[in-house]
């Protein structure tokens, strides 16, 4: 027998904060395991939920998780860098062309 899929119910209040923290932690564990594609997907899902939080709810998320979500991961997954990271070697190759 096939298991039924749970319908995504709208998260509210503390449940939404918990879900954001959980997704950030999952993304960090993927990051530590060098699984960048999975990390990027979880980070995007966490960011979407994070942006829906109120300022009071954002402060309930631990500082360490917020810093990783906004600064550390943007440094590597930023949109201005090719393939997530710009290295000196990549920049030298692109200049040659």
UniProtKB/TrEMBL annotation:
One of its GO terms (molecular function) is methyltransferase activity. Keywords: Methyltransferase, Transferase. It comes from the Bacteria. It comes from Hyella patelloides LEGE 07179. GO terms for biological process: methylation. This is Precorrin-3B methylase.
């Amino acid at each position: 027998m096939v298991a039924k899929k749970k319908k995504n119910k709208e998260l509210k209040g503390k449940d939404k904060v918990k879900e954001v923290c959980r997704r950030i932690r999952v993304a960090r564990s993927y990051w530590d395991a060098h699984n960048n594609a999975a990390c990027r997907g979880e980070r995007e899902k966490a960011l979407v939920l994070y942006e829906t939080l109120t300022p009071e709810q954002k402060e309930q998320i631990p500082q360490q998780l917020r810093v990783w979500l906004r600064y550390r991961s943007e440094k590597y997954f930023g949109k201005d860098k090719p393939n997530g990271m710009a290295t000196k070697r990549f920049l030298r190759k692109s200049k040659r062309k």
